[in-house]
C-alpha cells in the first residue's frame, strides 16, 4: 500500500495541506475563538447577574445554538441568508458560525465556573464594603477564570477540528485541499490520513500549551 | 454606638427576627447566645447588612438606616455601613486565590482606596498582632483552620471598623485550634474594641461579656450581665446554660 508513488504523493501534498492550515485553519480558529470567548463572557455575565430583558434573550441564543448542528447553522448562514439579500463571504460566514458556537458553549463553561466560586467568599467581599463590580472583578472572575481554563482549552481544541466543516461552505482550508488532492490522485486513504495527522499535530501542540498554562496557573495561585 | 429598634426579618412564613431592640455599647463586648435556629446569625448579619431586615431601624453613631421603607436603601448607604462593621465568619471565608497579606489588604486597597504600600505595612502589623507574620505570602489552603480564622480577624481589623462582629468564630475548629483564636479575641476585648460575638462557649462568654443577649425564636428572652442571666431564674435559660456545661 505504501508504495513509492503513494509516498511521493504524501510528500508533495504535505506542504500543500499544511499551508492552508497555517493561512486558514489557524486564523479561523483564533479569530472565531476570540470573538466567541468575548461573546461567552457577556452571555455568562448577563446570566449570573440576571440582567432583565437581556437574560431571556441570551438563554434563547444558547438554546438555539446548542440545539442545532453546527453544519446546519453554517448552511443557513452561507447558503440560506442570500435569499434574504444577505450575501456573506464564505470565511466571514464560517467565522460567524464558529463564534456563535464558541459563545454558546463557553458561556455555559464560564457560568458554571462563576457559580463554583464559594458564596462565603462573595459575602466576605461584600462585608468589606465592595460593590458588585468589585466583587466580580476582584473575587469571582479570577477564580472562575482559573477553573474554566481546562474546559476552555477543550473547546479550543474542538474548534480546531470543527474548522474542517468550513470546507462544506467552500472555504479552502486544510480538509478542502486534501479532498481535492485525493480526488486528483485517487488516494483517499493516504490523503485523509495525512490531513488527520496534521490535525493531530496541531492538537498535540495545543494540549502541551494547555498543560503548561495549567502548571503556570497552579504556581501563580497557590 | 449601635441602636437596634424593632428589627424584624421573615423568611417565607418563618419570623426569624421578631421585633428586636438592643443597644450595643462602644468599647464593650456583647455576647449573643441562644439555641440553634433562634436567629443569632440573622441578627448578626443584619448588623453588617449581609441580610437586609424587613423593617426596623439600625443607628450607628449619628446615622440611621430605616428598613422596609418604600424607597429601598441606596447601595451607597449599604456600602458605607458595611465599611464600618467588620464581619468574622464561622467558616473564615478567606479569598482562596489570594495570599494571606493580599487577603488583608484587599479591603483597604479596593474599598478604602489606600496606597498598596501603606496597606501592606499596616497589614503586616496586623499579622504580627495575630501571630502570623511569617505566613504573609502563603495561600489560605496552606494554613490550619485556626490560622485561617486569625487571618480573617486581621482582614476585618484592616478596615478599622467601628464594630467587630463574630459569628461562632471557633465552631468550625478543633478544640486545640479554638484556643489560639479565642486568645486573639481576648486580646481585642482587652483593647476595648466594640465587639458583638455569637458563641456557644459559655466559659468564654462569662469571661469576656459586658452584656449578654439571650435569643429564642427571634425574641430577646433576657439580656444583662452574664451573672444576671444565670440568676434570672428563667427555666429555659438555665436549661440552655446547663446543657452546654
Ligand atoms: N436565607 C435563609 N432562608 C430561609 N431561612 C433561613 C435563612 N437564613 C436563616 N433561615 C432560618 O432562620 C432561622 C434562624 O436562623 P439563624 O439566624 O441562622 O439561627 P442561629 O444562628 O441562631 O442558629 C432558622 O430556622 C433558619 O433555618
Ligand atoms: Mg448561626
Please tell me about this protein's structure.
The complex is a heterodimer of chains A (222) and B (245). Chain A is mainly α and 222 residues long. Chain A has one domain: MetI-like (MetI-like fold, Orthogonal Bundle). Chain A has eight helices and no strands. Chain A has helices spanning 4-48, 54-67, 70-80, 90-115, 119-127, 132-162, 174-185, 188-220. In chain A, helix 1 (4-48) runs antiparallel to helix 7 (174-185), helix 1 (4-48) crosses helix 8 (188-220) and helix 2 crosses helix 4 (90-115). The longest helix of chain A is centred in the N-terminal third of the chain and has 45 residues, at 4-48. Chain B is an alpha/beta fold. Chain B folds into two domains: 11-84 and 162-245, 3-Layer(aba) Sandwich (Rossmann fold), CATH 3.40.50; 94-160, no CATH class. Chain B is 38% helix and 25% strand. Chain B is built from nine helices and ten strands. Chain B has helices at 40-48, 75-83, 100-111, 116-129, 145-157, 175-190, 202-208, 226-230, 235-243, and strands at residues 2-11, 14-24, 29-33, 55-60, 63-67, 85-88, 163-167, 195-198, 211-216, 219-224. Chain B is globular. The two termini of chain B are 32 Å apart. Chains A and B meet through helix 5 and helix 6 of A and helix 2, strand 6 and helix 3 of B. The complex binds adenosine-5'-diphosphate (ADP) and magnesium ion (MG). Residues 40-41, 168 of chain B line the site of magnesium ion (MG).
Amino acid at each position: 500500500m505504501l508504495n513509492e508513488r503513494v509516498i511521493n504523493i504524501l510528500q508533495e501534498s504535505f506542504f500543500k495541506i499544511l499551508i492552508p492550515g497555517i493561512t486558514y485553519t489557524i486564523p479561523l480558529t483564533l479569530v472565531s475563538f476570540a470573538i466567541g470567548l468575548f461573546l461567552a463572557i457577556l452571555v455568562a455575565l448577563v446570566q449570573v447577574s440576571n440582567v432583565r430583558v437581556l437574560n431571556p434573550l441570551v438563554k434563547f441564543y444558547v438554546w438555539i445554538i446548542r440545539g442545532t448542528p453546527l453544519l446546519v447553522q453554517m448552511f443557513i448562514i452561507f447558503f440560506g441568508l442570500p435569499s434574504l439579500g444577505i450575501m456573506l463571504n464564505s470565511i466571514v460566514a464560517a467565522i460567524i458560525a464558529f463564534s456563535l458556537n464558541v459563545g454558546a458553549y463557553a458561556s455555559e463553561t464560564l457560568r458554571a465556573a462563576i457559580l463554583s466560586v464559594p458564596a462565603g467568599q462573595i459575602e466576605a467581599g461584600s462585608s468589606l464594603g465592595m460593590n458588585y463590580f468589585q466583587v466580580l472583578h476582584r473575587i469571582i472572575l479570577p477564580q472562575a477564570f482559573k477553573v474554566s481554563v481546562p474546559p476552555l482549552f477543550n473547546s479550543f481544541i474542538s474548534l480546531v477540528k470543527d474548522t474542517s466543516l468550513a470546507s462544506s461552505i467552500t472555504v479552502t482550508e486544510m480538509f478542502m485541499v486534501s479532498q481535492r488532492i485525493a480526488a486528483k490522485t485517487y488516494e483517499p486513504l493516504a490523503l485523509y490520513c495525512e490531513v488527520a495527522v496534521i490535525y493531530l499535530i496541531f492538537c498535540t501542540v495545543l494540549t502541551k500549551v494547555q498543560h503548561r498554562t495549567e502548571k503556570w496557573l497552579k504556581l501563580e495561585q497557590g | 454606638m449601635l441602636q437596634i429598634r424593632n428589627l424584624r426579618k421573615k423568611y417565607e412564613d418563618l419570623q426569624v427576627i421578631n421585633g428586636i431592640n438592643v443597644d450595643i455599647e462602644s468599647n464593650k463586648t456583647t455576647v449573643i447566645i441562644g439555641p440553634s435556629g433562634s436567629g443569632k446569625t440573622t441578627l448578626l448579619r443584619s448588623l453588617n447588612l449581609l441580610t437586609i431586615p424587613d423593617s426596623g431601624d439600625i443607628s450607628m453613631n449619628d446615622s440611621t438606616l430605616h428598613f422596609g421603607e418604600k424607597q429601598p436603601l441606596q447601595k451607597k448607604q449599604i456600602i458605607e455601613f458595611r465599611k464600618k462593621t467588620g464581619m468574622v465568619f464561622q467558616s473564615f471565608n478567606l479569598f482562596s486565590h489570594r495570599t494571606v497579606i493580599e487577603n488583608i489588604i484587599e479591603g483597604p486597597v479596593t474599598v478604602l482606596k489606600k496606597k498598596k504600600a501603606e496597606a501592606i505595612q499596616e497589614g503586616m502589623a496586623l499579622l504580627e498582632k495575630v501571630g502570623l507574620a511569617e505566613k504573609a505570602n502563603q495561600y489560605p489552603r496552606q494554613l490550619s483552620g485556626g490560622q485561617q480564622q486569625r487571618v480573617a480577624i486581621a482582614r476585618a481589623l484592616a478596615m478599622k471598623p467601628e464594630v467587630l462582629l463574630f459569628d461562632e468564630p471557633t465552631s468550625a475548629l478543633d478544640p486545640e485550634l479554638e484556643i489560639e483564636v479565642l486568645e486573639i479575641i481576648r486580646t481585642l476585648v482587652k483593647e476595648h474594641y466594640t465587639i458583638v460575638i455569637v458563641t456557644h462557649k459559655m466559659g468564654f462568654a462569662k469571661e469576656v461579656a459586658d452584656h449578654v443577649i439571650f435569643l429564642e425564636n427571634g425574641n430577646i428572652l433576657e439580656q444583662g450581665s452574664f451573672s444576671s442571666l444565670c440568676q434570672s431564674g428563667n427555666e429555659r435559660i438555665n436549661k440552655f446554660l446547663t446543657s452546654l456545661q
